[in-house]
Write a structure and sequence with these properties.
Blueprint (H helix, E strand, L loop, with lengths): L1 E5 L2 E5 L4 E4 L2 E4 L4 E4 L20 H9 L89 H14 L19 E3 L27 E2 L1 E2 L2 E5 L5 E4 L23 E6 L2 E7 L6 E4 L5 E4 L3 E4 L5 E7 L2 E5 L7 E11 L2 E4 L3 E5 L7 E13 L2 E3 L2 E3 L2 E11 L5 E2 L6 E6 L1 E2 L15 E10 L4 E13 L7 E15 L9 E2 L7 E2 L8 H5 L22 E3 L2 E3 L38 E8 L8 E9 L1 E2 L10 E8 L11 E6 L10 E3 L13 E4 L10 E8 L6 E9 L1
Parallel strand pairs: 9-20, 37-38, 39-40
Antiparallel strand pairs: 1-2, 3-4, 4-5, 6-7, 6-25, 8-9, 10-17, 11-12, 11-18, 13-14, 14-17, 15-16, 18-19, 18-20, 21-24, 22-23, 24-28, 26-29, 27-28, 29-30, 31-43, 32-35, 33-34, 35-42, 36-41, 36-43, 38-39, 38-42
């Protein structure tokens, strides 16, 4: 209890409760003993008003006891600061003295003595808290002109308080949210309420998000921050949604920052608390390193920079150290407790998995080869495709968390492929992914010349190193010609032998060229029947000498006697390793331009040197000749040498047909102009091109393109 003295009058303020018996008078709220009241019991409950009827001996007590230097708080009892009048005898009911104010004496209504001068030019109201008479200027010239002598004192105080607030810088908003800098990954959980694990906390709804059970997705969304490997501190900014308010306070401020306590809660427990009234600035953490980094409590400012000490703000960050986290479910928030009220941020939550075991594959097997299709080129049979079966087990794919991707398990294939798949359901963190009888398919369009198909397993894991190409297995000795690239009437692609002709016909007429009996049969071996005995080999997308094929021309498989041959190649393939001599390739090209033509252009792609036909093929040289069989518009030509220039009227064997004005030719990749002079090749009629090489030729021709001019 505080006793205030103003010259001749005392009154009491800031009291919650008075009580006294016999010789004790104390303030219960602060246990502040202030005097004896001789058995009188009195109570004043937060009204700051003196009881209207105060016993005489209480008045005397108040008159005689000590003073306080603090300025008095305005209450319902008036006072004056004039000189104390002569001591008058106290009336039995506390009446006012006749010649002056009785210094400490208070009447029944607590009125001011009539002789004392007013302290402020306005008389303070009676005990009920009523405002006294107005000053000499009245109220009409002020902001509020409705005040009267009977207006309760609380009314102007309330109004003045609101005016002052509107003119003052505002306080920063209370603490209400926070950010989190870290973001993890989404994953399927391999633990939960349905399958609890002793070392991993199940994900509940404690942080405001739905619980997540085993085999359910723990996503990255909102305050759910995903899965981590447990090796990271977590942290963020307090009140990160607050934006700067002029000079009042900066971004991310929170108010009342010099009052109350700030605490960090992790997994439902308070791990660190600070008293903002005494804390300065900087880091404050617990033994695990979790806590806050706060600025100093700073007063808000008026526009001119003058501080208003009533309101103070801070900015800061929070930190949950690795040592304060647990495996499984974690969540945290920050709470500012102020005058018994909690101002809490949002929660953030995450899942930790600190297990370090790697994902591994075991027990892999690739078998059950099944080859499909059949394709012949130059008498050699190839398969066009095939499949095999792959078995493998993957361990630790579900180690506490699992990959959510639809293709979490995939396969690395060489010359083959297998479809990816999602993880299966987990029974717990030690569930093994069993992949049985997985179909592996040889790649479409591939050419495999005594080569293998190979496969290995991959497995994604959200937090651990991914498994890459585990349990890699292969099947060797494949002979595959899967290309579907086709030749045309104006182009030879050497992936097939369409439009190839036999070598034992002069092709003097269009009917000879078009006769199916003169068409090449790819199932026939070189060196066998007439028309095939001197043929060149089409192999691996190019025209080659037969001994330049697989294993020096020996296409037999292991079972047929070639120890180095394709173990899984077709049976019955030929052995060309002994073929020799000059060999030929005949190929027809059709005029599909829609009108008669005499001129054309060839472009060769490959490796080799062109020579004239008279010199003949030798070494790395090859010769090229062209012939037109008699048609509806013109008679036949002989085999014209493409290397030599055309001479008008010369169409016999060995004469030239080069037309350099349409391309010099004679080398690979260069336009090579050709002509039949005044003869005309009608629409849909054919010419035949013949290539010859010696046994010493190691080059190749992979493409021939003809253009009609």
């Amino acid at each position: 209890m505080k006793l205030w003295q103003a010259d001749t009058l005392f009154y009491m303020s800031e009291l919650d409760q008075w009580s006294g018996t016999d010789s004790a008078f104390s303030r219960i709220a602060k246990n502040e003993v202030v005097g004896d009241f001789e058995g009188v019991q009195m109570m004043l409950v937060k009204t700051r008003q003196i009881p209207r009827a105060l016993p005489e001996y209480a008045k005397q007590y108040m008159t005689m006891t000590g003073t306080q230097a603090d300025p008095p708080i305005i209450g319902g009892v008036g006072f004056c600061s004039g000189t104390q009048g002569p001591q008058g005898a106290a009336g039995p009911q506390g009446a006012v003295g006749a010649q002056g104010s009785q210094g400490p004496g208070v009447g029944a209504q607590g009125l001011q003595g009539p002789q004392g001068p007013q302290a402020s030019g306005a008389q303070i109201g009676p005990a009920e808290g009523i405002q006294g008479p107005q000053g000499p200027q009245g109220y009409e010239d002020g902001l509020y002109d409705d005040f009267t002598e009977t207006t309760p004192v609380g009314t102007p105080i309330d109004r003045f308080n609101r005016v002052l607030k509107s003119l003052s810088p505002g306080d920063a908003p209370p603490l209400s949210d926070m950010s989190m800098a870290q973001s993890g990954v989404q994953a399927f959980l391999s633990f939960g309420d349905s399958a609890p694990h002793v070392a991993y906390a199940s994900v509940t709804n404690a942080a405001g998000n739905p619980a997540v059970d085993i085999n359910e997705l723990y996503a990255v969304s909102g305050t759910r921050r995903g899965c981590f490997n447990g090796g990271q501190n977590k942290g963020g900014v307090l009140n990160d949604s607050v934006v700067q308010s002029g000079l009042n306070y900066p971004d991310n401020s929170f108010g009342s920052a010099d009052h109350g306590t700030l605490r960090l809660e992790i997994n439902g427990s308070v791990v660190h608390t600070i008293n903002l009234a005494i804390f300065g600035s900087g880091w404050t953490v617990n033994g695990n390193g979790s806590g806050f980094n706060l600025s100093a409590a700073t007063a808000v400012q008026y526009p001119d920079g003058t501080p208003l000490e009533t309101y103070k703000y801070r900015t800061g960050t929070w930190l949950v150290a690795q040592a304060s986290q647990r495996n499984g479910f974690n969540y945290c928030r920050v709470v500012h407790t102020l005058a018994g009220t909690d101002y809490a941020t949002n929660f953030f939550e995450w899942v930790n998995d600190s297990s370090a075991e790697s994902v591994v594959a075991e027990s892999g097997v690739l078998d059950t080869l099944s080859l499909t299709g059949s394709k012949f080129l130059s008498g050699v049979e190839y398969n066009t495709g095939g499949t095999a079966r792959y078995d493998v087990n993957v361990r630790r794919a579900h180690r506490f968390v699992g990959a959510p991707e639809p293709g979490a398990i995939s396969f690395t294939g060489v010359n083959c492929s297998a479809a990816s798949q999602a993880l299966g359901a987990a029974a717990g963190p030690n569930t093994v992914e069993v992949i049985a009888d997985k179909q592996v398919t040889i790649g479409s369009g591939l050419t495999l010349l005594n080569q293998s198909m190979e496969i290995g397993v991959n497995c994604l894991h959200p937090l651990k190193a991914n498994l890459v190409d585990g349990e890699h297995h292969s099947i060797t000795g494949l002979l595959i010609a899967g290309s579907t690239v086709a030749s045309t009437v104006r182009r030879a692609r050497f992936r097939d032998e369409t439009y190839r002709m036999l070598s034992n016909n002069a092709y003097n007429a269009q009917t000879d060229i078009e006769n199916p009996s003169n068409a090449w049969d790819s199932t026939q071996a070189l060196g066998g029947l007439a028309g095939y005995t001197d043929g060149l080999l089409v192999y691996n997308g190019a025209l080659r000498y037969p001994t330049m094929g697989l294993d020096a021309g020996d296409f037999r498989n292991v079972a047929d006697g070639n120890a180095d041959g394709p173990a899984n190649g077709p049976s019955g393939n030929p052995n060309y390793s002994a073929l020799s001599g000059v060999r030929y390739f005949y190929r027809r090209f059709r005029n599909d331009s829609g009108s008669p033509r005499s001129n054309m252009r060839l472009v060769f792609t490959g490796v080799g040197t062109f020579a004239d036909a008279a010199s003949g093929p030798s070494g790395q040289n090859l010769t090229v000749e062209m012939k037109f069989g008699a048609g509806v518009l013109s008679t036949a030509t002989g085999w014209l040498d493409c290397y030599d220039d055309f001479v008008t009227g010369q169409w016999n064997d060995g004469d030239g047909c080069r037309l350099p004005s349409q391309g010099a030719g004679r080398v690979m990749g260069v336009n090579w102009g050709l002509t039949v002079g005044t003869k005309s090749i009608a629409s849909n009629e054919w010419i035949v091109v013949r290539i010859a090489v010696a046994a010493t030729w190691t080059g190749s021709v992979s493409d021939i393109i003809l253009t009609w001019l």
